Amino acid sequence: MFALLASLAAAAPIDPTPVDGGVPLVVRVVDQHGQPVGTATVRHLEERVSHPVNARTGRWRGEGLYIDERVVRFVPGTVVQFDVRAPGHLTTRMSYAVRAHRNVVTVALPAFDGVGSDVLAEAGPVSLTPAALISTATADDASSAADLAISLAAMGPDHADDALAWATEAMLRAQRTLSGPEFVEVMDRMYAVKALAAASDWQLAEVERITGRRMDTTDPRRAAATAAADWLDYARAAGTSVDLAQTLCASASETLSRCL
Fold first, then answer.
1. Between 48 and 141, whose confidence is greater?
2. Where a domain ends, among 108, 128, 162?
3. Of the N and C termini of the chain, which has fewer Cβ atoms inside 10 Å?
């Protein structure tokens, strides 16, 4: 799930002047096309603080870390490890040996690329309005409510709240009317829809943050982490696939151990 990047250095130089015994370190986060990922954060494994990158350049520049109430500088010859993540991308763990000069590390974050496609593809082309879709949900039928939740989730972040509401409704109906493998299938799909919708909502919130329309994204990120962790717990108990749930959990959770 995590890609390990060892001793990667980009060509772009930075000021190598020592800072109280250490040197500056720049982490440059790009997508698979080499474009900056302005919604990314960089988190040292021991410091446990998520540092946002520059929204325009995708870069984070650090001169040291605050670990156990002391400042730890980047000293040439030492190895540092960071988790780099962004909504809509796979979390990447980088390991880098600090050098005396030119400490610019480029981390390419893979996109989810089809994350949730197995779930959302069931909706097929969505041509109805949300109101028209809702009218198709048969009373107390879990399958129709589940299909509606999937269709709404496939319509994008603007319909995430409706998708979450109908996924919850489908789960309640399943608990009343279904059993056995059919119950497990509906519940697993709805946990997936809730996790995907929450992840989509968080991604939209991060875009709003870097464009100045929002100050903080802690709540949507935590909601995404919780929804993914809930799905992961259910999938483990039910014996269904945990891969996508782990991926979504790792991208949003502050505590990666809960996702492993």
1. 141
2. 108
3. C
Of 108, 140, 164, the one marking the end of a domain is: 108
**Whether residue 201 is found in the same domain as residue 236:** yes
First to last CA, the chain: 9
How confident is the model at residue 235, as a pLDDT? 96
- Same domain for 88 and 131, yes or no, is no
For the chain, give the longest Cα–Cα distance.
69
Q: What angle do CA 54, 96, 249 make, to 5 degrees?
A: 65
Token couple for 205 = 């919130």
pLDDT tens-digit series, residues 152-163: 888 878 888 888
Same domain, yes or no, for 193 and 66? Answer: no
**The tokens 């999937």 sit on which residue?**
150
259 contacts 250 by C-beta, under 8 angstroms: yes
* Residue predicted with more confidence, 115 or 51: 51
**What residue numbers bound the domain in which 101 lies?**
3-108
The more confidently predicted of residues 124 and 55 is 55
C-alpha–C-alpha distance, residues 119 and 100, integer Å: 49
Average pLDDT of span 59-73: 88
Joined tokens for residue 154: 């496939």
98 and 139, same domain (yes or no) = no
Q: What is the mean pLDDT of residues 71-81?
A: 90
Among all chains, which residue has been given the structure tokens 């919850």?
Answer: 168
Domains identified in the chain, total number: 2
Which residue type sits at 245?
A: A
**How far is residue 16's CA from residue 103's CA, in Å, rounded to a whole number?**
8
Residues 129 and 79 in one domain: no
Tokens of 156: 């994008």
Whether residues 31 and 133 share a domain: the answer is no
My answer on whether 171 and 87 are in the same domain is no
Q: What's the mean pLDDT when you consider all of the chain?
A: 83
